Structure formats: structure tokens, C-alpha cells
Amino acid sequence: MQTQCPFCSVQCKITLHPPHSSPSPISVIQTGALATALSMEDWQAEGHPNAASQGRLCIKGMNAHQHALNGDRLLYPLIRRDGKLVRASWDEALDLIAARFREAMQQHGPDTIGVYGGGSLTNETAYLLGKFARIGLGTRYIDYNGRFCMSAAASAGTKVFGVDRGLTFRLQDIPLAQCIILAGTNIAECQPTLLPYFHEARANGARIIVLDPRQTGTAAIADLHLQLKPGTDALLALTLLKLIIDNGWTDQAFIAQHTNGYHELAALLDGIELEQTAQQCGIPAAQIVQAAEWYGTAETGMILTARGIEQQTDGHLAVRYLLNLVLATGKIGRPGCGYGAVTGQANGQGGREHGQKADQLPGYRSIENESDRAHVASVWGVEPSEIPGKGVSAYEMLELADQGLLRMLFVMGSNPVVSNPNIPLVRRALEGLDLLVVADLFLSETARMADIVLPVASFLENTGTLTNLEGRVLLREAVMEPPGEARQDWSILHAIAERLGTGHYFHFNSAEAIFNELRLASRGGLADYSGITYDRLRQEEGIYWPCPDESHAGTPTMFQQRFAHEDGKAIFTALPHQYVREQPSTTRPLLLTNGRVLSHYLTGVQTRRSPTLAARELQNFVEIHPATAKRYRLKEGQWAELQSAQGQFIVRCRLSEQIRMDTLFVSMHWGGKQNVNEATPPELDPFCKMPGFKFTPVTIRSWQPERSLLK
Ligand SMILES: Nc1nc2c(c(=O)[nH]1)N[C@H]1C(S)=C(S)[C@@H](COP(=O)(O)OP(=O)(O)OC[C@H]3O[C@@H](n4cnc5c(=O)[nH]c(N)nc54)[C@H](O)[C@@H]3O)O[C@H]1N2
Ligand SMILES: Nc1nc2c(c(=O)[nH]1)N[C@H]1C(S)=C(S)[C@@H](COP(=O)(O)OP(=O)(O)OC[C@H]3O[C@@H](n4cnc5c(=O)[nH]c(N)nc54)[C@H](O)[C@@H]3O)O[C@H]1N2
Ligand code: SF4
Ligand SMILES: [Mo]
């Protein structure tokens, strides 16, 4: 069986072999996944040749089938009765959802219902979810978990280049770069199958510079590791630019021909001092000079960013300041050059293009632009005025719920009570809703709080397209029937709309039919999919957007001739640095950052149901420098409580010399008492509404289980 990994944005292809003792693949299709659940560890997965990962698979892809085959899968709808979630029929569940939604619409208006999507959903489902919110329900309130993931880099790319596509280059061109800056990206654990591209670049003589407060597996391949203090990337980027300009390493011909705003940079850089930056970033000045020289003087070069630099309340500006380096040195639009936002989720790229974001319509169109609205309205068969206006970001929807303004929430493909910042507020907001509906594979932490839970098909059971971090659209076809009564996400949207009298907008009999409408809706937009068909995707190895017609080969490298702004030029960023964040103090002297480990995925709902992956990391931990641990009298393996202004959580200590002494690192993969987001502050980046996940002043102390039991 051929499938595609459901986890990260590389989207490696997988060949899956059922156990020899089990029925043939054909009868597996007929009996569904559950029949084989007990033998899930006997299934074998191997990498299938594909251009993105060149046939490689990482440990997560190798074991992804295990959660899909797990006996924990939701098999039928659940409705909360007398405080308990109990089995219900689909008709009961759908009728109840429709009745409650109708009630809210009539009594308080459709804007009291929110829709919350996710970057694991296929393009088809993400597209339909946006349409469902706007036309099926008539609410302006829809957003998705990608807000926590891609919003800083995506909004920066749009401002600077006129369009955001994760990588502006092909993965296979990485070895052509002579200098690569990896800023807050841990490719070794988060996109492991891409690491060989960087090894190859090094073998070709490239210099790799890593910006990370920890000595990660990615930093281990670096020629220069700037082990900076969390949250200081923006200042570092400004200083690198100043050094590049002062030393004349700029490409004046490129600047004159392809950019606007260069001369406004002088004021921005006025007052930037190398020594001061070195001190604030906590790294030697010589390293900053070395980085500037290597990138500034290299013939070709790439800059890649991920959540370490982006999940900050100044993440948008930090990325834009790095893009200043790309433009000033003319390193984009030619082989071995470019910028890459290392996209996170399986469909983190497509999921941000087709309308599940508060301000966006399909094809990367804007919900505030009259001609964009008119185009999409014509495809949907409605008047432009029937499409509601812009809503608010994911966390802000929960704030509205907390204020009682949003009364019902429909969640498809996310686990917000674990992944949002400021969990104390989020928990209260979800508890206070009149109705919480969750469509998921499992009884996640959020599903456990729901009034109605709907079981959905997994990656092995649904067909659809996903767009990888390169902007390459890929087709993933179902290889099994869903277990029990689980349904396709998109068919659930249709069934609810049908009961609300808007079913005719959602009448599709296949994912392909939805894709064909998405193609029309995206036609002429920035992310134009209109030339891509399922037939082409089956024949070709995926197609890069934009692809405006069926004879178009797709666009592997962006900006070869021009940028996407009207005049074809990119824009330098001269906006002054600004951010809102609490600084460390005597009460909270340590800086908490967080992120991922190799074997788990996001909130762990899926990877904890894969025995092979779960066994690799059983509990959450805090990575702490031995000197810091000593100061706080903490030992390896001991429980510790971390406390911020927002809240606290408990994890085990893991002593490591590979982290800065002023910094702590916790993984984000656990909910409940081990959830790092209990402590994450609520402030958002003013430009893109990204939370400051990676910067929380905390204090730490040892924690004894007995003491809490006595309380
Ligand atoms: N194994 C695994 N892989 C995944 C995922 C997963 O959950 N597990 N999730 C996927 C998703 S959705 C995403 S978004 C990506 C995320 O991919 P990444 O962004 O690469 O992952 P993170 O571990 O969150 O953060 C990357 C690094 O940023 C560093 N960092 C922390 N604070 C700062 C800072 O202030 N400045 C700098 N320069 N660095 C800092 C951390 O130490 C960490 O090593 O991974 C994808 N791949
Ligand atoms: N502290 C901290 N917090 C973070 C981050 C961080 O680095 N640090 N990273 C942020 C980032 S980058 C991200 S992407 C978010 C992710 O945050 P979440 O969206 O909460 O993460 P997931 O664990 O992927 O939750 C997805 C849910 O959807 C279900 N699911 C999977 N596939 C499907 C499907 O096809 N259909 C449906 N209906 N359900 C499906 C899964 O079972 C799971 O319950 O977390 C953010 N939160
Ligand atoms: S998690 Fe990412 S790198 Fe690993 S197999 Fe899946 S898609 Fe490939
Ligand atoms: Mo993400």
C-alpha cells in the first residue's frame, strides 16, 4: 500500500506492508483498520521513492500507521449526557449540532459560533471548512492552529515578497548554497529526512550557521553555532545587516533593480552597536562578525527560519529583518539562493492558503479585498455581501469565548486546550461554552471536554491533497476504509450544512470534486492551483504552485524574474523594533523556551498512541544546565515545578550541558499537569497574532508528589 506520512511538512511517501499473517490488503480494505489493530507492530513501513525526501523516512513516518491502527480510535459519535460522553448515532449527533447552531444563530447571530481548523487537514477539507464557516454558518469567526505555526513567517513573506511560499527554492537545490543560516530551526529532530541535503551542502564547501540557544542535533552540523539568548534574534539580524552594509558586501545592482526602501534602513541601523548586541544576545562579538562575513561574501546562500525565531512577540519583525539580509545581498531567485520558512505540519503550507484563516479566502486571497471577495463569491454562487468580514486569530477566539461573546465552537483537527498559550484562560473559555463540538481520531484533551465528539478518518483512510514545505502539491490516496462509523471530515461538514439548509453549497461526492472547485476558487490568486488535477498529480511527482493552467509545469523556484508586488519589487523593512514581553526579574530569573523532540508530534495525541514512538519518551522533561540545576538544588530525573506569571506545570529534570545556563527547554508534547503552555503568556505579536511561545520568564523549584497529595 502506498501512502504519505501524516506528520511533518516534508511529506515523505511510505510503502506500508501489512503483516504476512493478516488478510491480504484487499480484505483489509473491506474489514477496516480495527481488524488488524492487535497486530499493528507487525506492520512494516518503508520509504517510497519521492523527490522531497529522496525515499528517506524518519522514525515517526516509520511508525505512523500504528496510531491509525490503534484500538483507541473513535468509532462512533459521542454525546455528553449527564456529564458523560456516551455513544450516539450520527443522526442524533448531527441533528443536535444543527439544532444548537440554529438556536445560537437565531438568538444571538451567527457570529457567536466559531470554527477552529488545523494544518493536518487536507487542502480539500481546509477549503471546505472555510466555506462552511462563511457560507454554511455565516460566521466571520474561523481560524486554525497554523496561527501558532506559520503566521509570523507567512505574514513577513507576504509583506516583503508579495507572497508567502514556505521555501522559495526546491529542496534539491540546498546543496548548491555556499552559506546557509538556520535560525531557530531544529531540522535534525523536526524534518530529519532533510538533514542529508545539508550534509551534501557542507560536502560541497558550504558554511552552515545555526542560531539556537541549545546545542541541538542541527547545531552539531554547523560550522558556527550562535548560541544566543532566546528572543534576541531580531537584534542579531539588525546587527548582521549593519555589518554587511558597513563592509560593502551588498549587491547594489540587485537592490536598485529589484527592491524598494533600501535607503530607509539607515535610520533603523542607527544606534546598533556590535558590542552591545553581543552582550544582549549573550554571544561573542567575533562570532557575529564571522557570520556576517560568511553570509555577506558567499556567492550563493540561503536563510531558513522556523519556530525558534518566529514564535515570539517580535517574530514577524525578526523574520523581516533576516529578509533584509537576503535582499541586501541579492541572494534570491537564482540557484543556491533563497529564503525558507520551514513549514511545520503535514499541510501547514496548503492549510494556510485556502481560507481557514480569519482574514483569508481561497488561493491566498484577502477577505478584505473587493475583487477577491467577488471572485470567490462567484465560484460559491453567492453575493459578495454574503461572505462575512474578517474574524480574529485562534487565541483571540478563545478570549472572545471567555468573555461570553463566542458561545459555540466547532473544532476540526486541533487540540487547543494543549496547544494554545495561557491554558488557564483557554480551559475556562472552553468550559464556559454553550456547545463544544470536536471532530478527531481520538479522545484528545479537547475532545474530552466536548459536548459532542465526531469520529473521523485517518490519513490511511482519506484521500486528498497536501502541500509540502516547498509548495509542492501532493496527492495522498486512501488505502483503507475508516474503522467503525468514522467519517470523512468533509462529509461531516456537508451533513451539518444540509441540516441548516445550506447543504447545496457542500454537495460533493469525492475529495476530487472539492479539489476541482478549489482550483476554480484559487484561479488568478497568488496560490493558483487551477492547472493542477488529480490525474496530473498521479502522473507527476507533485506540482509546485503557482500553476495557472493545465499545460503549466508549476513553479519550482520563486522570484526568478520578479517579486509578487505590483511593481515586481521586494520591500526592505525599516520599521523600528518593538515588542511586548515580560523580562526576566529576580522573581522569575530564568528564560523558558520550548519545542520538539524527535519521536513525538505536537500535542502527542497521535504519537502517544504509537507504542514504538511512545516508548522513546514517556514523560515530559525540562532540559537544564548542570550549573543551573545545582543552583536550584535539582538532580537528574527529579520532578520540578516551573512557575511563570500565568501558571505552572511539572516535569522531570534532564541535565544537559548543551543549553545556556540562563535558559530552560521543555517539550511541547504533553497536556495536563505537564503542559508547558500552562505557563505561556498571552501576549501576541501585534503584526500577525503569533503568541510568544518561546519566551517565558520563570522560576524553578523541586516538586514532591507527596506534598501535593497532602494538600
Ligand atoms: N519530531 C517532530 N517534528 C516536527 C513536529 C513535532 O512536533 N515533532 N512538529 C512539526 C511542526 S507543526 C512544526 S511547526 C515544526 C517546528 O520545527 P522547529 O521550529 O524546528 O522546532 P522547535 O523545536 O519548536 O524549535 C526549533 C528550535 O528553536 C530553538 N529556539 C528556542 N528559542 C529560540 C530563540 O529565541 N531563538 C532561536 N534562534 N532559536 C530558539 C529551540 O531550542 C529549538 O531547537 O516541526 C515539525 N516537525
Ligand atoms: N508551547 C508551545 N506551544 C505550541 C508550539 C510550540 O512550539 N510551543 N507549537 C505550535 C504549533 S507550531 C502548532 S502547529 C500547534 C499544533 O497544535 P494542535 O493543533 O493542538 O496539535 P495536534 O496535536 O496536531 O492536534 C491535532 C488534533 O487533530 C487530530 N487529527 C489529526 N489528523 C486529523 C484529521 O485529518 N482530521 C481531524 N478532524 N482531526 C485530525 C489529532 O488526533 C489531534 O487531536 O501547537 C502550537 N503550540
Ligand atoms: S515526520 Fe516528516 S520527515 Fe519524518 S517521515 Fe514524516 S514527513 Fe518524513
Ligand atoms: Mo507547527
TrEMBL record:
Keyword Iron-sulfur among UniProt keywords: yes
Keyword Magnesium recorded: no
Pfam families the UniProt entry points to: Molybdop_Fe4S4 (PF04879), Molybdopterin (PF00384), Molydop_binding (PF01568)
Listed cofactors: Mo-bis(molybdopterin guanine dinucleotide)
Gene3D superfamilies: 2.40.40.20, 3.40.50.740, ADC-like domains, Dimethylsulfoxide Reductase, domain 2
InterPro entries to which the protein is assigned, alphabetical: Asp_de-COase-like_dom_sf, MoPterin_dinucl-bd_dom, Mopterin_OxRdtase, Mopterin_OxRdtase_4Fe-4S_dom, Mopterin_OxRdtase_prok_CS, Prok_molybdopt-oxidoreductase
Domain 4Fe-4S Mo/W bis-MGD-type: from-to ranges: 1-72
Name of protein: Assimilatory nitrate reductase catalytic subunit
Keywords: 4Fe-4S, Iron, Iron-sulfur, Metal-binding
CDD domains documented for this protein: MopB_CT_Fdh-Nap-like, MopB_Nitrate-R-NapA-like
Ranges that cross the membrane: none
SUPFAM superfamilies membership: ADC-like (SSF50692), Formate dehydrogenase/DMSO reductase, domains 1-3 (SSF53706)
